[in-house]
Every structure is written in structure tokens, then in C-alpha cells.
């Protein structure tokens, strides 16, 4: 589309600088695809000649994308065991660290685990005292080896049962050393971040299979999921830099890097999801936002010519190659991409060939 617009612009320019028919006929001698201008032709002054050269070129590709929270920095909070909410510390925007208390619930499962813990702790202490007493009795000649061995075995069994009870308490994210019988279960934040959703209601009963009642997320960095068509995925590489336009932030251009390229093609859209890691220090990017991602490939050397050199006829772009003084050959070219005011040529020209870079529209103006 850009190529056609360029050609139309050139033809418009030609209309603004008309030549008299008699003058043009006297200065243009077409021979097939070759046009010859005799020495002294006034058209010579209207043509600019430039040598074809290679220059660095980075292929660009644009696609739609959406903002996502990074899974490892996002957590939906739900207690692992059922219970009734007795206290809440939650509020939207609350900053958290790993272990920050969020709310308390009275959990029958937690109470049962506490009872088992304190029971096993008492039995372990009793078994330890019995074992030490048998050691003292044997040392003073009034005990037997059999009684000592039985006491030691009982102690080791109780120790194992106590360790199991401690592990049961730790499942609730509670500390056995700071435990008191009947205390509520404290649900804590698993990561550093901010409370972005809170559905906790005082007195509500939460089942163990309930959905999350609160959400904690660290949005200082986010992912953007861009959808790249399968025919273009070969141009995307991990680590490539991207520019991102956000509809909600007009005039702001953000930068990110390709973090991951999905290994599977979506069969419905025939596209591949590409994740871009983007810093988000001001939390301007919010999960769910729509964005436009501009991918930029690694620069490669490519033949480039000024856009003003390109002409169009029957949907086939062409240029005029200056093969000698006053002698120009019409040459069809294949283009693939734009680079500022230049176009990339992939076929039809060779390095160091000379072309008409400006004014070429004068040459085919008279048939």
C-alpha cells in the first residue's frame, strides 16, 4: 500500500511540473524498456542519479497483544482448610511481603491438629522422663537392661509421632513453637506484592474447595502476550527488543524484550503466542489491557533505495537503471519492507548499480 502511495505522489509531482509535448518528444527516445536522452536534454536537469548500496536493515512486525500478570508474581489466596473468618487485615492496595498476615479463620481441622500436637508433645516428654529414669536405675544397679531398652524404644516411637504432629501444624503455615491451643488459623501472603482483589467478609464460612477470596500480585513487571501469525514467527527471536503502544496511554512508547515463544500454534487463529517482559514501575500497565507490539528483528545488511526512486505500473514496482550517460533501462524490482525514507529491495538490482533516485516519473510520462 505504501508503495502505491509513493507512486501516486510521484505522478502528482509530475503533473505539477508539466513538460511541453514538443519538448518531451524531442528529448525522449523509447526503445522497448530503454529510454535514451540525447545530450543537452532538459530532462537531464530533472533527474537525480544515485548508486545502489547495502545498509543495515531491521525487519519490523506489528501485532495486537494483551497485558498479563507474571504467574510467579501472582497469587489467588484461598485457605487450604475450611473455616470461618474471625478477623481480616486485608484492604485493597495493601503492600505485602512473604508471610504477611491477611486474615484469620477458625478452622476445625486446625484445632484438631493442635490437639494432636499438644497430646504428642506431652507423651514425648513423659517417654523421655521414663527413659532417663531407667538409665539412672541401671547406673545405680537397681534397673534392668530390658526395662531400659523398652523405655528407649517407647521414646523413639513417641518422638516419631511428635515429629508427625509438628509437620501437620506446619501444613497450616503455623509455628509449633508459638502455638497455643484454640488459636485461629492465620492465612498469610505467599509473595511480596499488593492486594489487588479482596472478597473476604467477616464471619463468612470458607470451604476447603472454595475459589480464591483475595489476590496478591507484584505488578512491577508484567508480560505482554502478542499473537504472531505462523508465517511471521520465523522473524521473532528470544531476546529481541520490542516497542509497545498502549491505547490507554496515548503518546507513551514502552520497551520490552521477547521472553518466550510458545512451541504450539493456536489452531483457531493460526498464530503463536509470544510473551514479552516489560518493566511496569508505575503500574501503568494493568492486566487485561490491549496493546500493539512492534517487533524489531536483528539488523542485517540489505539493498536499499530511496522511496522516491520507486515507480508503479500494473501492480509491478520498477525503477530506472542508469546504464550509461543519458541511457536508462526500466527494471522491475521486488521490495520487502520500509526503512525510514528507503525501501528494501530483495530482487532486481545489484550493489553499485546506478538508478534514477528522483524525477524518474518524467521518463515514462510520454509514450
From TrEMBL:
Q: Where is the CzcB-like C-terminal circularly permuted SH3-like domain?
A: 304-363
Residues of the CusB-like beta-barrel domain: 222-298
- Leader sequence residues: none
Keywords noted in UniProt: Transport
Q: Which InterPro entries match?
A: Beta-barrel_RND_2 (IPR058792), CzcB_C (IPR058649), MFP_Cation_Efflux (IPR051909), RND_pump_MFP (IPR006143)
SUPFAM superfamilies per the UniProt record, alphabetical:
HlyD-like secretion proteins
> What's a Pfam family in this record?
Beta-barrel_RND_2
What the entry lists under PANTHER family is as follows: CATION EFFLUX SYSTEM (CZCB-LIKE), CATION EFFLUX SYSTEM PROTEIN CUSB
Q: Which family does it belong to?
A: Belongs to the membrane fusion protein (MFP) (TC 8.A.1) family.
> What name has this protein been given in UniProt?
Efflux RND transporter periplasmic adaptor subunit
Amino acid at each position: 500500500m505504501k508503495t502505491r502511495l509513493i507512486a501516486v505522489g510521484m505522478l502528482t509531482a509530475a503533473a505539477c511540473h508539466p513538460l511541453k509535448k514538443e519538448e518531451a518528444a524531442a528529448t525522449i527516445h523509447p526503445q522497448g524498456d530503454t529510454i535514451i536522452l540525447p545530450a543537452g536534454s532538459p530532462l537531464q536537469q530533472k533527474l537525480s542519479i544515485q548508486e545502489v548500496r547495502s545498509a543495515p536493515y531491521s525487519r519490523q512486525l506489528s501485532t495486537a497483544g494483551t497485558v498479563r500478570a507474571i504467574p510467579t508474581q501472582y497469587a489467588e489466596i484461598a485457605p487450604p482448610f475450611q473455616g470461618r473468618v474471625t478477623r481480616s487485615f486485608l484492604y485493597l492496595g495493601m503492600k505485602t511481603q512473604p508471610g504477611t498476615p491477611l486474615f484469620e479463620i477458625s478452622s476445625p481441622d486446625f484445632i484438631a491438629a493442635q490437639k494432636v500436637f499438644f497430646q504428642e508433645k506431652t507423651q514425648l516428654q513423659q517417654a523421655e522422663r521414663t527413659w532417663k529414669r531407667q538409665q539412672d536405675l541401671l547406673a545405680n544397679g537397681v534397673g534392668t537392661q530390658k526395662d531400659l531398652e523398652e523405655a528407649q524404644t517407647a521414646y523413639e516411637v513417641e518422638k516419631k509421632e511428635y515429629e508427625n504432629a509438628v509437620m501437620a501444624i506446619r501444613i497450616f503455615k503455623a509455628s509449633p513453637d508459638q502455638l497455643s491451643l484454640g488459636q485461629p488459623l492465620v492465612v498469610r501472603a505467599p509473595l511480596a506484592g499488593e492486594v489487588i482483589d479482596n472478597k473476604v467478609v467477616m464471619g463468612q464460612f470458607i470451604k476447603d474447595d472454595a475459589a480464591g477470596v483475595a489476590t496478591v500480585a507484584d505488578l512491577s513487571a508484567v508480560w505482554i502476550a502478542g499473537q504472531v501469525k505462523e508465517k511471521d514467527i520465523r522473524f521473532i527471536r528470544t531476546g529481541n527488543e520490542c516497542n509497545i503502544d498502549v491505547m490507554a496511554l496515548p503518546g507513551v512508547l514502552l520497551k520490552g524484550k521477547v521472553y518466550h515463544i510458545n512451541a504450539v500454534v493456536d489452531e483457531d487463529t493460526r498464530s503463536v503466542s509470544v510473551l514479552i517482559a516489560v518493566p511496569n514501575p508505575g503500574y501503568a500497565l494493568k492486566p487485561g489491557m490491549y496493546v500493539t507490539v512492534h517487533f524489531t528483528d536483528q539488523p542485517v545488511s540489505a539493498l536499499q533505495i530511496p522511496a522516491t526512486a520507486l515507480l508503479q505500473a500494473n501492480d509491478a514496482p520498477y525503477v530506472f537503471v542508469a546504464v550509461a550517460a543519458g541511457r536508462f533501462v526500466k527494471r522491475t524490482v521486488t521490495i520487502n519492507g520500509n526503512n525510514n525514507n528507503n525501501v528494501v529491495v530483495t530482487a532486481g538490482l545489484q550493489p553499485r548499480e546506478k538508478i534514477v533516485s528522483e524525477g524518474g516519473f518524467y521518463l515514462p510520462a510520454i509514450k
